[in-house]
Amino acid sequence: SININENELSSYNKLLINNADENKFKKIFKYYQDNISNYMIKDNISGIISLLCLSDPDTLKEDLEYLKEMDLSEETITDLFNRCTIIFFTNNKNKFKNNFELINTIGLKAEHIINSNVTFFYNSYEYNKNKINLLEEKNININKLFEKNAVLFAIGLDKLLKNELLLKNYGLSLETADYENISIIANKNLINILDFFIESGFCEYISN
Question: In a 3-state reduction of DSSP, which class is residue 178?
Answer without folding.
Answer: coil
